[in-house]
Amino acid sequence: MQEIGVPGLNLAYAKEYATIASTMYTTFVFTGGKILLSNSSNITSARVGLFGDALEIDETSAVLTSGLGCPAGQGMGMGFKDDEIAKFCPGSGASHGGFGGPGVAKSIYSRYQFICNSMVNINYGDNKNPIFEGSGGGISSYSLNGGSGGGVVIIAARTVQIDGQVTADGRPGGTERTINGGAGSGGSIQIHSVVKLTGSGAISAKGGDSLNNNGFGKRERF
User: Fold this and answer.
1) CA distance 194 to 160
2) How far apart are CA 51 and CA 28, in angstroms?
3) Taking the model in full, what pTM does it have?
4) Are 147 and 178 in contact (CB under 8 A)?
5) What angle (nearest 5°) sits at the alpha carbon of residue 71, between those of residues 57 and 118?
6) pLDDT tens digit string along 129-186?
């Protein structure tokens, strides 16, 4: 079994119960051989690149970047703070591949919902080359609890088999005192296989949910 050395990490050919956590750094693995994640092996990092002759992720293992993109109130498609335009509007969901959801005003302010609808940021990125993290949801002035965006995963190999999970989801926005933080938007996932892509796993880069608004936007390419 050939080991793959990565500076700063004890990442080799992921062995039994191996967990590689590098939430503050980018994790890249390059090899001329096979990359195998098995027996509950996880890679958890904000930006992950896996490049080899073959890649296999078994049903117990995962590449996890959900919630490790831009934090609340940051990013190109960040949600707006709930009192940035109107105090009765909850924080809006972040945008990425699509537009984030606007905050929904309480019923007593429903006639002003058109103002809340304007609290949506631009979308960004290229669906032919998704490379950006998801943005953070709008912060609530009461609880400062917008959701963070998803990270980035890029996989390229001659053959790819995914029976586990590859995730870059945005996190949900929290709630407090009926004034809510917006959810984060999904990040980016690219999977390139020269010969074939197989497996029965889950690949996800969706926006997070929130009670009155939700983040939006995924960038997946296979």
Assistant:
1) 9
2) 8
3) 0.84
4) no
5) 115
6) 899 999 999 887 666 678 999 999 999 999 999 999 999 999 988 765 545 788 899 9
